[in-house]
Amino acid sequence: MLLKGYGDGGFRVAGKRLEGSHIIFPEQTAPWSVTSVDAITLASLGAVIDKSDEIDILIVGCGVEFAPIPDDLKEALKEHGIVLEWMDTGAACRTFNVLLVEDRPVAAALIAV
Known about the structure:
This protein has 113 residues and is of the alpha/beta class. Helices cover 20% and strands 30% of the residues. It contains 3 helices and 8 strands; from the N terminus they run βββββαβαβαβ. It has a 5-stranded mixed beta sheet with strand order 5-4-8-6-7. A 3-stranded antiparallel beta sheet has the order 1-2-3, with helices on one face. Strand 4 and strand 5 (29-31) form a beta hairpin.
């Protein structure tokens, strides 16, 4: 499920416009209530943790600009077998597509810009 575009408060995925932040998996999407880096917690990433047997890499798009990773999030995800990659949302969309094409077990949690 390649990301075809982002901006104007949402994303284009599989021919559909998704409004707001979303978690994108290789075969499905889920709305994500997060609108700022401060709201990213282990609990907010529960949908990814639930799929930790299928997902090895989580790319987080933290908005327009890079922001620091919330304390302990990287280690908490690692305990579930998930590697955290943290970047701005544009870079996260591009990286997700590359890893998806490489058939890597990846998900992306993207703050809409």
